[in-house]
Amino acid sequence: MATPRDIRRLALLALYQFDAFKGEEADAIRGSLDHLETLEEEGLTFADPNRAFTDADKDKAVEIARAAWGNRAAADAVFAELAPEWPAHRMPAVDRAVLRLCHHEMHAGSPPKAVVNEGVELAKQFSTKESPGFVNALLDKVLKRVLAEQPRASTD
């Protein structure tokens, strides 16, 4: 059974492809997750290279990626406001995908602090050596905003 981290990695791969194909080719994107062995050829692996993903795992990942892709305009607007010198179109594609995925997850009910940590780990694994710092800095700003928007717990 795939872990949430593994599904998030699959979702990142799918979201990256949604960006590359401008939201088209959803069936091809889903099909690409059936050929993860090609990642190993490029030096990218999951924590457990022997992990077998079920069709349900892959479908869930694509569903998450599709939702993040659908919310990209809102995410990109937040990024442009918080880092005006780095609008989405100037970001490396992997960083953009990580940030959009994390923005979506923070607003979809995942624990926001954990999402920041996962985003940094994704940037470490899949992007440049500068990317984890950039992703962390921007997601930290998003985190502060998300936490400020959450209703305070009652002290009754």
List its salient traits.
156 residues, 0% strand, globular, N-utilizing Substance Protein B Homolog, Chain A, 67% helix, single chain, mainly alpha
Summarize this structure briefly.
With 156 residues, this protein is mainly alpha-helical.
Overall pLDDT metric: 87
Oligomer classification:
single chain
- Shape category: globular
Helicity level: 55-70%
CATH class label: Mainly Alpha
Look at the helices and sheets and give the structural class.
mainly alpha
Largest sheet: none
Structure description:
With 156 residues, the protein is an all-alpha fold. It has one domain (4-149): N-utilizing Substance Protein B Homolog, Chain A (Orthogonal Bundle). Helices cover 67% and strands 0% of the residues. The chain has 8 helices and no strands. Helix 4 (55-70) packs across helix 6, helix 6 runs antiparallel to helix 7 (112-126) and helix 7 runs antiparallel to helix 8 (131-149). The longest helix has 19 residues, at 131-149. The N and C termini lie far apart (40 Å). The model has no long low-confidence stretch (mean pLDDT 87).
